[in-house]
Write a structure and sequence with these properties.
By secondary structure, the chain is of the alpha/beta class. Helix content is 40%, strand content 19%. The protein is globular and about 55 Å long.
Length: 269
């Protein structure tokens, strides 16, 4: 079974498309459970989901309500309820293409391959340095994640063993929480990116700095610094790496700020 974890916060306009994308997967419908965590939504999101559940009794969907605690706490609630052998993450404003689950499960179960965590491309984006594609996959490692994250949450499926050997998201982290979790997973598991674009993220908009949490570049930069400090405190990186990466993140933040200003100015013009 594949457990699909969907954190929900004020997504009344997009959650139906996200659920439709699960319903239209070519992977057998009876092998899914969908766990939606309503993280204190103040719009009609909860009612939209209840209507959807009533309209699609053939789907195994559970809705869990909780006070607003952020995306990490919401995902963790779902992860603790999940019973599937595989865990798939899906954000409420994203959509899966029909072949996504089937293609990823085929790789996860391929004989002779050890894959514990498998992401894929989204919005027809390319897999960029330091990742390199070989035999249709690009390997994710701890050191590569320190430079760039190419595993957007809605692209990810991972084996249940990861919950046992790594644990959960940091409950209190709202920005770059995915990178924080991936870094910890990378220490004990084999991670890859499938070189297929199988997700439409954020309606197909630019995937970083355009909207949602990633639009708050200042908080994103603080999140990266928090991750770096945590990895140093856990002695997963050296003092030299810590200092070098601090400089790298500052330069990267300034570049992204300039790029965001450029995009916003051109949008206005």
């Amino acid at each position: 079974m594949v457990s699909v974890i969907i954190p929900l916060y004020n997504a009344e306009k997009t959650i139906q498309k996200a659920l439709d994308s699960v319903r239209t997967q070519t992977y057998p419908a009876e092998r899914f459970e969908v766990i939606i965590i309503n993280d204190g939504s103040t719009d009609a999101s909860r009612l939209v989901v209840l209507d959807y559940i009533e309209s699609h009794p053939d789907m195994n969907i559970r809705l869990i309500d909780q006070n607003n605690g952020g995306v990490s706490k919401a995902r963790n609630t779902g992860l603790k309820e999940a019973i599937g052998d595989y865990i798939a993450l899906l954000d409420s404003d994203d959509e899966w293409l029909p072949e996504k689950t089937k293609h990823q499960i085929e790789f996860l179960e391929r004989r002779g391959w050890v894959i514990d965590f498998l992401a894929c491309r989204r919005n027809n984006s390319e897999i960029l340095f330091p990742y390199k594609v070989k035999d249709g996959l690009a390997e994710i490692t701890f050191n590569k994640l320190l430079i760039r994250n190419e595993a957007q949450p809605s692209t990810v499926i991972f084996k249940r063993k990861i919950l046992k050997n790594t644990g959960y998201f940091d409950d209190n982290q709202r920005y770059t929480e995915d990178v924080n979790y991936w870094l910890k997973i990378a220490l004990k598991n084999k991670m890859y990116i499938l070189d297929e674009s199988l997700v439409i993220a954020g309606g197909g908009k630019r995937t970083f700095g355009a909207s949602g949490l990633s639009a708050d570049l200042s908080s994103m930069e603080k999140g990266y610094r928090k991750n770096l400090k945590e990895m140093y405190g856990l002695r997963n990186i050296t003092a030299l790496q810590y200092l070098a990466l601090r400089v790298f993140y500052k330069v990267k933040y300034l570049f992204l700020q300039c790029r965001q200003i450029y995009y916003n100015t051109n949008k206005i013009n």
